[in-house]
Design brief:
Layout: H1 2-29, H2 60-64, H3 67-80, H4 91-114, H5 117-143, H6 147-167, H7 172-191, H8 200-221, H9 234-254
Helix pairs in contact: 1-3, 3-4, 3-9, 4-5, 5-6, 5-7, 8-9
Length: 260
């Protein structure tokens, strides 16, 4: 418990450091974000939180809450390379998931802090890295694809998704949803039955967290749960629940027993 607590504190400290560095860099680049091409959402609605014009973080609540992903990702990596790691989930794969979670968090900060098109690119990039990981992981378990070949598939898939994101940014949410739903179906219908010892409850808990988060996202986006000037934002709650869902996914993969 002391060791686990130490990792928790270390991950929290590193998250605070990364947050400080990110905000410092944004202060150097900004706060005149209007000189950059705006994010696609500015044509309709970039969530409920009112942008603080002239600030380095246009949407502070939505920006700061994004660091929850960074904390979860750092903790995943620390646990994966600890001496007491016993799992059928390879440390390298766990680290890739952790790194993707960190990119999700920083990308989300860049979007909500700047509301620029380049910030949006990095925000969606992280989402594609996560959904692509889930899809390739499920496919690899189902078809018993070796880890090295699965890594190649993952890189190729992410490269394809990023290319589409760059060429057609307007399809970003639709494409992410398609990849994520395909990953969930492959995992639950084809991959999970091959690993009867894995703890499916973690996966279900992550799905529930994501469903609740999506409901709150819609309420925020449609202005039904909305106080523009408040630091309590529905989209910030979406971030927090999203980080929790990723943590449950990590626990699910970690619960797989090593092959003996």
């Amino acid at each position: 418990m002391i060791i686990a607590g130490g990792r928790f504190i270390a991950a929290a400290a590193l998250t605070a450091l990364i947050a400080a560095i990110t905000i410092a860099l944004l202060n150097l680049i900004g706060p005149d974000w209007a000189r950059f091409a705006p994010a696609s959402c500015t044509g309709t609605r970039c969530f409920c939180e009112m942008p603080r014009t002239g600030a380095a973080l246009l949407q502070p609540a939505n920006s700061i809450s994004s660091f929850g992903y960074v904390f979860a990702g750092l903790l995943m990596i620390m646990l994966a390379w600890s001496r007491d790691w016993i799992s059928g989930f390879p440390p390298l794969a766990a680290s890739i998931l952790g790194a993707a979670a960190i990119i999700v968090g920083i990308g989300s900060v860049l979007l909500h802090a700047t509301l620029t098109l380049w910030g949006q690119f990095f925000d969606v990039l992280g989402m594609y890295l996560i959904s692509g990981f889930f899809l390739v992981s499920a496919l690899a378990k189902w078809q018993r694809i070796p880890d090295r070949r699965a890594m190649i598939y993952y890189v190729l898939l992410c490269a394809g998704l990023v290319t589409i994101l760059y060429a057609l940014p307007e399809v970003r949410r639709w494409l992410f949803s398609v990849v994520l739903v395909a990953a969930i179906i492959l995992e639950l219908v084809f991959a999970r039955p091959l690993r009867p010892q894995i703890r499916t409850g973690y996966y279900v808990a992550g799905l529930i967290a994501n469903i609740v988060a999506l409901m709150i996202w819609n309420l925020d986006q449609n202005g039904q749960f909305c106080a523009p000037g408040s630091l309590l934002q529905g989209h910030a709650i979406w971030h927090s629940l999203g980080a929790v869902a990723l943590w449950f996914a990590f626990l699910y993969y970690r619960s797989e027993r090593p092959i003996t």
